[in-house]
Amino acid sequence: MKRSPKLNSQQVEALHAFIQAGSRSGREVRRAQAVLLTNQEVKATAITTITGYRRRQAFDLRRKYVARGVEALKDNRKGKPKELLTKKQRAEVIEVIKTKKPNALGSYYRHYDYWTTGVLGEYIKRTYDAEYKSKTSHYLLFKEARFTYHKPGRVSERRNEQEVEEWRVKAAKRIKQAWNDPETVILTEDEMHLSTQTTVQKIWLPQGEYPKIEIARKRDARSIYGFLNVKTGTEHAFKTKWQNMYITAGIIPEIRKLYPEKKILLIWDQAGWHRGAEAQNAIRQDGGIETIYFPAAAPDENPQEHVWKSGRTQVTHNRFIQDIDAATNEFIHHLNTTKFPYSLLGFSAGS
Asked: What structural domains and CATH numbers belong to the chain?
């Protein structure tokens, strides 16, 4: 039989690295060993004893390795992945996830208030001396514990959670009364800026496609006042140049035109243009509007905030805005023709 040429130093090093990789199966390691032993001209009987491969098989593996590299040595047989944790250990980990926060597990975790894949991996490593190579294994453990992934929201340092809770209790009583009164409309209000500065969000595309969105150099903006009728899910949006107490005062009669015979419970934040003298005077002149103010730094309590987010997703994200007025008009048309059944302290359209 024609003798195969000797392996070069790089091929030998690649074999040693292949064997030392902890993820290799026993079969893959024996194949690599057989190739190294043939290169060292070890007797065939010894190769068979060490690897289980006969001389012809060992030289065949060597030829394939020379031709294809370590890919020729990999085990293509599919099997169930080896479990690093036993069934009992997995159950223990899941119970810990469900019943404890990381900071209750010892001094190392004292700064971790919530579970992450990194924290879970470290806990498994320290507790069971096992380490998963992929985050997918951690995801599966969280799924078994009935945990879901959440991106933390931002909370202002000015927010007082006790004040927010007290507001919820007090406001809920008044909202319930208004909810049961067919002659009272409940409106939640907020403002937003729409500008020619393009806003982007992640989108899914076929692999290899890369989107590009034109960006405007000149920046222009418009303000929008939005009022959500919580009972019906109907939105009333108005375009303005900006926001101040004078403009707010001018919007109040426009709302009254929409509900000429109804009492209005208006719930909005504590912005200066809401509390300003002109705005307050317009409310007093109307005579049929009662106001409630959301607690400071608590935008999550206002369902109008969700209207903005939904509208931006549908109309303005990932879009080049050349004409700010045309874009604002389109945005307002979408808002005023779409139902938004968002909840206010448990009350929402259809409930």
From this structure: 9-73 (no CATH), 87-144 (no CATH), 161-336 (3.30.420.10)
